[in-house]
Write a structure and sequence with these properties.
By secondary structure, the chain is of the alpha+beta class. It is 21% helix and 22% strand. Bound molecules: 2'-deoxyguanosine-5'-monophosphate.
Length: 112
């Protein structure tokens, strides 16, 4: 499968890893939008949030268990934002489910 994030997870493309476990891989976004900008992805390929179902939702649970650990490691004691872009209207550019963790500064109060 020709998937950028599958290649990053496999180590075929380098990344700045910040966390990994059996189900989850997290690395720094190549175009950071905040002082901390981490992408958290399932090792198993899921195309987007729209593809989550009863057969793969454990991967999403593992991601949301990892997020507070990553936030603590990154020093995000004053809060952070978690975003996933899903599909064309949301400008999803990489079609492997990923959650952006953004923090390290006061973020705008508008989402869009
Ligand atoms: P989205 O627009 O939600 O699909 O976000 C995709 C993000 O992936 C975007 O913020 C930039 C990031 N990105 C794209 N290519 C690479 C890459 O090769 N390495 C890293 N670390 N991040 C990438």
């Amino acid at each position: 499968m020709d998937c950028l994030f599958c290649k990053i997870i496999a180590g075929e493309i380098p990344s700045a890893k910040v966390y990994e476990d059996a189900h989850v891989y997290a690395f720094r976004d190549i175009h950071p939008m905040a002082p901390v900008h981490v992408l958290v992805v399932p090792r198993r390929h899921i195309a987007s949030a729209d593809e989550v179902n009863a057969g793969n939702s454990a991967e999403v649970a593992a991601i949301f268990e990892a997020i507070p650990k990553i936030a603590a490691d990154e020093g995000l004691t004053n809060g952070y934002r978690v975003i996933t872009n899903c599909g064309e209207d949301a400008c999803q550019s990489v079609h492997h489910l990923h959650f952006h963790i953004l923090g390290g500064r006061k973020l705008p109060d508008q989402m869009a």
